[in-house]
């Protein structure tokens, strides 16, 4: 019972973190990044993707949603690293300053990876013990 | 049997997707209005605005010795860097800040943003 409620907490927490990630990307898209070629479209896709994954976490495809949430967070983290440290940037876009929304998104992405990863591990352990 | 939590997650996800679609529609209308308000491609004066990952005006004509000022009205940092090596370079123009460069030689100077190379513009010094 306790294991199940913990898994539920991880699932809901993971979904909330995925929503935060998507919310920041949509806010940044609306604020200014929609004018940047390619990067703007990626931010928009992130927003749509997080919405789909959050919804999946509330259905019988929840494990797939958790896996997708981890993948999306890893991809977003990798992208911000490339934009920050690659001299050519990502699609010609360089992130020079550590702006507030970036910090919020990076923290949410790191937490989402941890929380959704824990959820998957618990779900797997629960399945193997019956 | 789906729980209230499951239904809430589905609704939240649907709201985020709907919000993203609305962002596309809102962004499209904002682009149209900003295009309409955009000044002519070539202008006089000595000021260049940086907004929406673009220099405005795209081409500026000035007299020799003019001090040209770039104002960064974007939410990202930019530079105004001459395409030719040894040309002018404002260095980083922080968000909300401005930088000024004196242009003392006649010529046509193409320049770009070192952080976002897809941003291009030209200054003609006569």
Q: What is the CA-based Rg of chain A, rounded?
A: 16 Å
Radius of gyration of chain B using CA atoms only: 21 Å
Shape assignment of chain B: rod-shaped
Largest sheet of chain A: none
Q: What is the chain-wise order of helices and strands of chain B?
A: HEEEEEEEEE
Poorly predicted runs of 5 or more residues of chain A: none
- The total of beta strands of chain A comes to 0
Write down the overall geometry of chain A: elongated
Rounded to the nearest angstrom, the distance between the terminal CA atoms of chain A is 13 Å
Alpha plus pi helix count of chain B: 1
Could you tell me which chain pair has the largest interface and how many residues each side has? A-B, 37 and 37 residues
Derived from helix and strand composition plus strand pairing, the structural class of chain A reads mainly alpha
Low confidence ranges of chain B: 31-40
Strand content of chain A: under 5%
Overall mean pLDDT of chain A stands at 92
Which structural class is indicated by helix and strand composition of chain B? alpha/beta
What's the SSE pattern of chain A?
A: HHHH
Question: Would you mind describing this structure in some detail?
Answer:
The complex is a heterodimer of chains A (130) and B (126). Chain A has helices at 2-31, 39-56, 62-85, 100-129. The longest helix of chain A has 30 residues, at 2-31. The two termini of chain A are 13 Å apart. Chain A is 78% helix and 0% strand. Chain A is elongated and about 50 Å long. Chain A is an all-alpha fold. Chain B is an alpha/beta fold and 126 residues long. Chain B is built from one helix and nine strands; from the N terminus they run H-E-E-E-E-E-E-E-E-E. Chain B has one helix at 4-37, and strands at residues 42-43, 47-50, 55-56, 59-62, 67-72, 81-82, 98-102, 107-112, 120-125. Chain B has a five-stranded mixed sheet with strand order 1-4-9-8-6, with no helix packed on it. In chain B, strand 8 (107-112) and strand 9 (120-125) form a beta hairpin. The interface between A and B is large, with 37 and 37 residues.
